[in-house]
Design goal:
Helix 3 packs across helix 4. The chain is built from six helices and six strands; from the N terminus they run αβαβααββαβαβ. The protein is of the alpha/beta class. It has one domain (about 25-180): Alpha-Beta Plaits. It comes from Shigella flexneri K-315. GO terms for molecular function: diguanylate cyclase activity; GTP binding. Keywords: GTP-binding, Nucleotide-binding. It is an enzyme of class 2 (transferase). It catalyses: 2 GTP = 3',3'-c-di-GMP + 2 diphosphate.
């Protein structure tokens, strides 16, 4: 009987984890990310925060040229690089395909820029010259960032501005960081 209860408990824990984690990359998923942003914005006092959207440049071409197994390896590699470039309490989530979201609290605009640049440079370096991750070619990312001093409570505005910044970074040729302030 206790073995059955233990198995049920294990399955419930797994189901709970899968509800908020991306299976391939083992990071948070879209649902968890948006819930985290909404939770932050609903606090009585919201201090400085930053949302970053990260897009892997030329990812569709990588999948088409090298196949989905290599594409998956690229995704996992870039997630690992991002995780090494951020603080343990920062939130990293896979939002869709090759797009990731990051949520940072308790930092200023200059610190947000430093972190975004570090992530971008680390991806370029660790998949390029050193190619520590054994991916078929050097990868680059574009990062759209929105920084707020906590004045906004509107998740739609936050995400729209982050998306605008990301589209701007990509339209300028990619491998860029663009920051908008709200």
């Amino acid at each position: 009987m206790s073995f059955l209860i233990y198995n049920i408990f294990q399955e419930l824990q797994l189901s709970s984890k899968l509800a908020v984690h991306d299976v391939l990359t083992n990071i948070y998923n879209r649902r968890y990310f948006f819930n985290s942003v909404e939770s932050l914005l609903s606090r009585p006092v919201v201090k400085d925060f930053c949302v970053m959207l990260v897009d892997i440049n030329q990812f569709k071409r990588i999948n088409a040229q090298w196949g989905h197994r290599v594409g998956d390896k690229v995704l996992v590699s870039i997630v690992d690089i991002i995780q090494q470039s951020i603080r343990p309490d920062d939130i990293l989530a896979r939002l869709e395909g090759e797009v990731f979201g990051l949520l940072f609290t308790e930092l200023n605009s200059a610190q947000a820029k430093i972190i975004a640049d570090r992530i971008r440079k680390n991806v370029e370096l660790l998949t390029g010259f050193s190619n520590r991750y054994d991916v078929p070619e050097q990868m680059t990312i574009s990062i759209g960032t929105v920084f707020s001093t906590g004045d906004t409570r509107n998740i739609s505005l936050v995400m729209t501005e982050a998306d605008k910044a990301l589209r701007e970074a990509k339209s300028e040729g990619g491998n860029k960081v663009i920051i908008h302030h709200i």
